Automatic annotation (TrEMBL):
Enzyme Commission (EC) number: 2.4.1.-
The organism of origin for this protein: Kitasatospora atroaurantiaca
Region described as Disordered: 1-43
GO terms for cellular component: endomembrane system; plasma membrane
Subcellular location(s) per record: Cell membrane; Endomembrane system
Function: Protein O-mannosyltransferase that catalyzes the transfer of a single mannose residue from a polyprenol phospho-mannosyl lipidic donor to the hydroxyl group of selected serine and threonine residues in acceptor proteins.
Family: Belongs to the glycosyltransferase 39 family.
GO molecular function: dolichyl-phosphate-mannose-protein mannosyltransferase activity
Residue stretches making up the Protein O-mannosyl-transferase C-terminal four TM domain: 430-621
Annotated ArnT-like N-terminal domain residues: 123-347
Protein name: Polyprenol-phosphate-mannose--protein mannosyltransferase
Transmembrane segments: 210-231, 238-256, 262-280, 326-343, 355-379, 497-514, 521-538, 544-566, 578-599
Cited InterPro entries: ArnT-like_N, PMT-like, PMT_4TMC
Amino acid sequence: MWRVSGDMAPETPTGVDHTEQGGVGLLSVGTADGPTAESVVPAPREAGPVRSAWQRGLARYGYRAPERPDLAEQLMPPMPDGPGVTPRRVEPSPLLAGWGIVLPAALWSWLCRWSGWLGPLAVALFGGVLRFSNLGEPSALIFDETYYAKDAYALWHGGYEIAWPDDANAKIMAPDQSIPFRTDPSYIVHPPVGKWLIGLGEQLYGMNPFGWRFMMAVLGTLSILMIARIGRRLFRSTLLGCVAGLLLSVDGLHFVMSRAALLDLVVMFWCLAAFGFLLLDRDRTRGLIARRLETEPGGEWLFLGWRPYRLAAAVCIGLTCATKWSGLYMLAAFWLLGALWDASARRLAGARRWLAFGIWDASLALLVMPLVAASVYLASWTGWFLSSSVPGQGGYGRDWAVHRAGLSPEYVQGIKMPFQVDMTWVPDALRSLWHYHATMYDFHTHLTSPHTYQSNPWSWLVLGRPVSYFYESPKSGQPGCRASECAREVLGIGTPLLWWAGVVALLYCLYRWALRRDWRAGAILCGLAAGYLPWFMYQQRTIFLFYAVAFVPFLVLAVTMMIGALIGPANASRDRRVIGATGAGLLILAVMWNFLYFYPLYTGETIPMDDWRARMWFTSWI
């Protein structure tokens, strides 16, 4: 039920019958609808003998030489548990029996069969309770909620963002609330999807802190479930999947962003969903190749199916870009990742022209994925398109192209073009949107106004400069303050021990990818690089640590992979496993303690000023 091996390649469940077909051992399992990504899995292999005196000597200290799996298992490693994999009858657990716990055979078999869902759901429930607890506090518009909560309300009530009066915040937060909605358009610099989601919570629960934070808490909770399932599939271990979910649930930055109406958690959610769909596509495609090997050993395959999971990934990337433009880097990174996975699968399967077919796969994906993502992006602007083109009566810039000559720009990036092209054939709405986007791009690339909490991306991984979303200094006698002076703060900072362990884990992943050719490490590094490295191109831009929430799931997966290595291979000696599991357990407990220690700063609790100062480990955190 909870298996993990050294390189996190799982043991095949015992008691499952298998047959040899066409020289490739495949488990005879599936569903009435045909084989699935989890149903076509290799048969178990027998352990090979230790071949050299050197290896025999190392074996005395727990070393086991890596076993080379057969071709089918290399293409599609077996899943650890689940319907179609776990037998309907599972032997009782010796561990539980040793503790005197005896479960009915049917219940135990059902738990083992569905542990791949029950474990992640339990972890997500834990993280969800944390995120929804007292979600409406602080009862204020904290940090950039002052923009996005109101923009979200405007989108749902008018289809486009509006200019709010200066006293809007006070009226919204007043006991006798009045919302000063009007139709004057406002210039905004981010696409609308994240604000549409924030507004959904406002539609359900009202224009109040709980309402505009509700959907962020939902997405934060769902992302915990997703990373647990992604980790399970990536490492072929339900235990490690649940560890990934647990670590994400107690990361401070992810926690704070799940309780604030900002856009970056939405970016993280769709990026993680896209990665998960790509992982499903990888397994589905390799399962297809494994099945074709049964009938065409060494054959060539040009078409690998319609790739529904890859299309779903493209939709998610489109939603990412429609929240913030940083999703464009994810599109490039995940296209490259998918292309490399396709080429390696064909090469592993023995295709003679694997490189040519790999280029074909990459070209097809390069055509389809951006097209799907762009379609989703344009659809996200529907409210703006449907608004009036009469000046002052629709979305900002909606009327720009009306009665304007349809010529291409005279200058591009400050360079005068040798000629201009007639663009009158392009609809006015699209030309207006293009001009609007040009001004947005100019804003983003020239945003250099200094900010108290801005930080350089070089400092992000070590949490050099967090962001204070909210701060008050209650005095003695005020609600919650029993000392002479107190502090109340919401600090956007990751759980320090988790992030610092993540730095070590990233080095481990670099080693696994560069020297051991571990595709899982490469996938983790690809996702993290897409969310992190592009910010180094904007050294002069005003940027903040909370942008890093987009790659937090990949940092967590790196730590999880390192924990799997600490636990050790399934065939290691008992002492090795005990020591490794103890070290891994202590690391997880330390991260959870660290989260609890900083919990008052994540939730805006009122604490004595001395306790607040004790948590300011570095002067740059103040």
